[in-house]
Prior knowledge:
Blueprint: H1 9-23, H2 29-36, H3 40-46, H4 50-58, H5 66-73, H6 79-106, H7 121-138, H8 147-168, H9 174-189
Amino acid sequence: MARPRTISDQQIVDAAREVFLEQGFSATTAEIARRAGVSEGTLFKRFSTKEDLFAETIGLSEGRSWHKEITDLVGQGELCDNLKRLARLIVHTARIILPPLMVMWSRGHAPGSHPRPERDPVAEDSAAIAAYLRAEITLGRLREMDCEVVADALLGALTSHVHRELMLGPGIDTEQYVEHLLDAWWTGLAPPAENR
Length: 196
């Protein structure tokens, strides 16, 4: 019979967060395990890679539910409203992920100071947005465009809004920002009048 867990996954994540904040991504799994009070073997039974543990500590794993949500929106409802919904989901995710990253960077652990992780979450997010846009183009609900550029631009605008909010305090109200940003973009995204 297996022994019951005495250290929760959350306790391991909390210990890992402390170590990553102190040492950046170059922190060793041995140090994380020591701080959590578990063996490295236990650490890797719970989190298959150091990258997975890092993603969990900064909220990357919980923030990606919107990928499926936008896939389910293809061909449904008013497209401009769906894009605004997507924008709000991205802002919510950025508010979870950016603060711990900013703290880590402020301690001198810049992204270039560690090995490149196996996953590129920004590229994954951009690809999810681009796939959604391509699906809507196929249905004639959007005009032809370079979906990757539009996806990157949307992601950049929204994360920049959150970054500014975190650095300087509240600026433009998020609802107002999303509404006006997508209203302005809609002219360039909407299909020709004869397809509407």
